[in-house]
Structures are given as C-alpha cells and as structure tokens.
Write a structure and sequence with these properties.
550 residues; alpha+beta; 20-stranded antiparallel β-sheet; five-stranded antiparallel β-sheet; 9 helices; disordered N terminus
C-alpha cells in the first residue's frame, strides 16, 4: 500500500469532511492550478471551444431537475497508485410513499458504507470505516441523518435532524457530546448531494451548479460548486480509455478552507471515476466483487491499527520480559516530545543512533544502564467514577461484589480475580461500533479490548482500587508478525501499578508497548487516543531478544 505525502488519506465521496471529523493533524489546503485535473498521463483531453462544443450563457441559468429518478446502487473501488486500498457501497431507495401524490409523505433513504486501509509510514497501517444513513425528500432535501466514523481506535458519531427553523446536530465521541445548530432551507441538500445532483440532472459542458449541504462528521455547513469543464479521455478500472465529461468539484468548508476533487461521468450522469489530488486517491465505479476483493482479508490482518515488526516473539502470551528497539522514521508532531515514554513496568533508553530501546518487564526489577522507568502518583481521578468508567453504576457494583469472594483476598489477588471475572463475563469482539461505558459493557457482555479494559477499570474502582486504562500495541502472531492496537488496565495495588489484561484474564504479558495511559475523566476519547495514532508511522519496531541481559 503506498503512503500519501501527508501520511493521511480520507476516502470516497466524503473525502473533504472526514479528516476534520477525526481531528487528525490538518494539512495545508490544496489550491489547484487551472490544469491540475488534466494530468499529462491522461491523454485525449479536449478543449470544448476548440472542438466547437459551446454552451450558451443562459444554460447555467437553467433550472436543475431534482426529481427522484428511481432506486440506485453502486460500488466503488479505492486506489492509491496501483494499490487497491478500499471500497464504498451506496444504496438509494425510494420510501413507501415515494410514488404517491402527497409530497409531505414522499421520502428517499440513502446508505453509504465504506472501508479504507491507510498506511502511515512504511510499516504502519490503520483501518478507517464510515457508515451513513439518511432520509431525504424526493427532491433531495435532507430530513435526518446519522453517521458513524471509526479512524483506528477513535470512534465518532453524528446525528442531525431538520426542523422548521434549522438543522440540529448531536456529535458524540466517547462520552463527550456536543450540539450544533445551523440555519437551513429547502435549498440545502443531503450528504450524497454531489452524486445525486449529477445523477438526477446531468451537467453539460460549460454548465455550473452551486448548492449547500452538510459535512457528516465535523459537523459544518458547506457550499459545493460544480463545473463541467470539458470532455476527457481517461482510463477506467479496466485500463481502457473512455470518453467522459469532466466535472470540477470545489467544497467550501468556511474560514478560507476549501477542498477540491474531480469527477468523470457519462452524459447521463453516471459517475465512473473520481480523483482526490490532496491524497492521490482515485475511485472507480465497478461491481461488488472487484470493489471488495482482498480488502476484508487485509483489514483482518491490520486489525484496527498495526505496525509490522522485523522479528518474531515466541510464546508472546507467556512473556515476562521483552525488549523492543524503536527506530525513528518520522518526526512527532511535537518535536520536543518522543511518542514513546517511560511507563510503569516499561523502561526506556535512548541510544546514540537516535533509536530507542524499550524494555517491558513483569519481574518487579529496576534495570540499569541508562533505562528510565515512568511512574505517576494516584489521583482522585484514578479512584472516582466518571462518564466512561462509571464504577458506581448498579450492574458494575454487583459484578465487583460477586467477584470479591469472601473479602479475604489481598489487593493484588483481588485485582487479578476481577480481571478473571471481566474475562469470563464478556465475549471478545475484534472491533466495536462505539466506545462503550463500563456499564454498557457489563450489560452487553461483549466488546473489544478497549471495552474489556474499561470494564475492568470500573470493577477495580468499585472495590476501592485505583485504576487507569493503558493504550498501545500488542504483539500478534500472524503470518506477518505485527504489533496491533490493544488496550488493557493498570491497577494500583500494594503500592505499585500492576498491568492487567481482561482479554486474557490475568496479569498482562510483556508482549506490548504502552503509548499512553488515562483515567478517562476526559470524556472526549479522541484526545486520549491521538498519541496512539501519532505513534503509527513514527517508528520501525524490532524485537530484541538480547535485551534480556539489561
């Protein structure tokens, strides 16, 4: 998979808005030169005036036909260079009353599902998934929508509803909820506005069109400008040249922020290809088999986010002492701060070649030779319930009480028993649709490693044991060895922090790197998780067996 220059790709029809939704580092806005979209590797582009094809000035004033043309389904394949990196699936279906005379009852349901595999650096990757469901009138006016975006471990949802005076949007990430309100009118469109506008009322050469819509995740109102500039001969996914109409798309995000992409479509409005220059992402309209080929298997290998390693680790779940050598491949956003820090039971030593040696130990030792160990004092936030670790909730307290046995266990034994209980009571999923509160995990009895870690943290606090959640990467035995995103729990027992993993039901093995820890009193989980995404692409990782001598 090729890496884009910025290190970040946001994909598909929503490329202009997803980056802001996940709060990744902003890139410089792209201001394309006039001929940017007519690249030299796409021959046969023609000037509409040179070919005698002109459009009268009044053509741009022609009323747009917004009538619903019928149900619609499409698959797109995402490519960066020659590498297949994802897909999108779109369905547009008229509601029960879409063919009746009562306009107030007429509606159209739209659904978008996409998956994008993103490389950040030569050995790091994460998965971005987006789903969007919306309801619109038959002439394209938005009624309601709900969007869900997962970027690696960061999950964001937005839900918007149009009423008589505006658009109300509720954005949720972790337990953080924000509300937004926008002025709205019948002229505003839904989230699939570009595709639906071109499909319902195809553009002709020289014709321009402007409308307003909403980005699904940020959220914010945007202005979209379409301009059908020429006929162009471009290759499609079959590699053969096709003569299509070229449409420039400018999305104005406000505050002098604009994004650009180009679409190639048939004269009847069928979109066949799109290019997003800022990320070098190209989409091709195709069928399901081609769109999803090999993507699901690659996604399973990457998990949520992962980093390839240069060596293997034998019996990782049994390890008590592991050395990792981290070679810097990119500067961190904050150049004065390394993205790997000493943590409890994690010792860090900077080497002369600017690489870092990390020793993870469960042996209660204090290595010498320049290793530094991190530690932090217990705070009130490590002990009290909060919106995510809701340890005072009835279900959580009941589980904690039942797991405590006769009450004769010491702190360490009790903490380990709580880890076993969390493991027994919960079914592990590879990923989760939401960042769940501890009480939700207890009730649903399933979740990913983050859900396990949050539940265990709550059980510990319910038994008066301070706790934090650790976020980082754990070794995974696959045909290609890699460190995958993982979360576990720190418990403060007997005067020290003990690493526990509810996914295995006991003391955490030394097969992992801690990137950050949190008491999760900050409800915006995106801020908590950003160091994990920053770590991707920052280092190459080698497992150093000789580190056991330190």
């Amino acid at each position: 998979m090729r890496t884009c220059k910025t290190g970040w790709i946001a994909g598909g029809l929503l490329v202009a808005t997803l980056l802001g939704g996940c709060d990744v580092p902003e890139r410089v806005p792209l201001v394309p030169p006039p001929d940017l979209y007519r690249a030299s590797d796409e021959p046969g582009q023609s000037d509409p005036q040179a070919s005698g094809e002109t459009v009268a000035r009044e053509e741009n004033l022609k009323s747009e036909d917004r009538k619903f043309p019928g149900d619609f389904e499409a698959w797109d394949a995402y490519f960066v260079g020659d590498t297949h990196v994802g897909y999108s699936h779109i369905t547009v279906v008229g509601g029960e009353d879409a063919d009746r005379s009562d306009a107030k009852k007429q509606h159209v349901d739209l659904n978008i599902e996409d998956c994008l595999l993103i490389n950040r650096g030569p050995a790091s990757a994460f998965v971005q998934r987006h789903s969007h469901q919306s309801s619109e009138t038959i002439d394209g006016q938005l009624l309601h929508y709900k969007s869900h975006l997962s970027v690696g471990p960061i999950i964001t949802t937005c839900e918007g509803t149009v009423d008589e005076s505006g658009l109300n949007v509720v954005k949720t990430r972790g337990a953080a909820v924000s509300t937004h309100r926008f002025a709205w009118s019948d002229e505003h469109r839904g989230l699939l506005a570009v595709e639906e506008s071109i499909r319902r009322s195809p553009l002709r050469i020289g014709q321009k069109r402007t409308f307003q819509t909403v980005s699904p995740i940020q959220p914010l109102a945007t202005t979209v400008r379409l301009h059908c500039v020429a006929k162009a001969t471009v290759p499609l996914i079959d590699g053969k040249p096709h003569e299509l109409l070229e449409i420039d798309v400018e999305t104005d995000l406000g505050e002098d922020r604009k994004s650009y992409h180009v679409i190639w479509a048939e004269p009847d409005g069928t979109i066949r290809r799109a290019l997003y220059p800022a990320s070098n992402l190209v989409t091709y309209r195709t069928d399901k088999e081609v769109a999803v080929k090999d993507i699901e298997s690659q996604q399973a290998a990457i998990a949520i986010a992962s980093i390839l390693t240069n060596s293997t680790l034998e019996r990782p779940s049994e390890t008590k002492r592991v050395g990792f050598k981290l070679v810097r491949t990119a500067l961190p956003i904050d150049e004065e701060k390394s993205t790997i820090q000493p943590q409890p039971n994690q010792f860090v030593r900077k080497l002369d070649d600017a690489s870092v040696l990390v020793l993870v130990s469960r042996l209660g030792e204090t290595p010498r030779n320049g290793f530094q160990q991190g530690s932090f004092l217990v705070t009130d936030a490590d002990q009290k319930p909060n919106a995510i670790i809701d340890s005072a909730e009835t279900m959580v307290r009941r589980i904690a009480q039942a797991s405590g046995g006769s009450g004769k266990l010491g702190e360490r034994e009790l903490a380990i028993e709580l880890a076993r209980s969390a493991n027994r009571l919960t079914q592990l999923k590879s990923s989760s649709d939401t960042f769940q509160r501890a009480s939700e995990v207890a009730r649903n009895a399933q979740g990913d490693s983050t859900a396990y870690a949050v539940l265990l943290a709550a059980l510990l606090r319910a038994k008066a044991i301070p706790s934090r959640v650790a976020f980082g990467f754990r070794y995974q035995e696959t045909p290609t060895p890699r460190m995958v995103y993982h979360a576990w729990t720190l418990a403060f027992v007997d005067g020290d922090w003990l690493s526990l993993d509810a996914t295995t039901g006991g003391i955490a093995a030394a097969d992992r790197l801690t990137v950050t820890t949190s008491d999760l009193s900050n409800q915006d989980i995106g801020e908590v998780m950003m160091p994990v995404l920053d770590f991707l692409g920052a280092y190459e990782i080698e497992i150093v067996t000789s580190a056991t001598r330190y």
